[in-house]
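Hey L., structure's done. Input below.
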Amino acid sequence: MSEYENRKRIIGERIKGEREIKGWSKKEFLKQIFMAESSTKTLNAWEKGERLPDLDSLAQMAKVFQCDIGYLLGDYDTRRHKNADICETTGLSESSVEFLRCKKEWESTTEAKVIDLLLTDARKRDEEHDYRPITSLLEFFFKYRDGAGQRKQVFSNGMVVDYNRVDGFISSNSIALDGRIVENAVLMEIEGALKSLKRSIQAGEGK
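Output:
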């Protein structure tokens, strides 16, 4: 497939995909871009990658789909070019970038401020930050799996061994360490880290 044919295919797929996301029938979509409902053959040719839309139609599509023409043309994979640079630099998904952008436009920056605080906590490590970064703890919590069911037995002297008994018996000077206990321990660490960050913020405000 030539580059030209591949580009027509991409454009057709994006037009069809965006139309379906909006929930518009072909006739409804044609009305949105100021074309006659009888132009379904033209739309079919666009969506199948058989023909390219004219520039006026592309401009109207970009308007109703709330995206850039470059996205419809397949120049980049994010709906808006300015989002593409942010996504590439930060690793954030386009939906997250678009969400923060929309919140800022509506003069609501709560989420952005919280993210900024978490990033400040992650990069500022000193004697006042005696916990792991909150983002690191959250990542561990979300990724943690219960060791495929493998439990541990922790003795009062600190020794840790595998706990494989099926009868439930356990030594009186030890406890069984399972996934629930590990997750609760991580949650306690997260709570402590949040309190530490809060103290740091309040101390900074008092200066």
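The CA atoms of residues 11 and 73 lie 5 Å apart. The first strand starts at residue 151 and ends at 155.

-- N.
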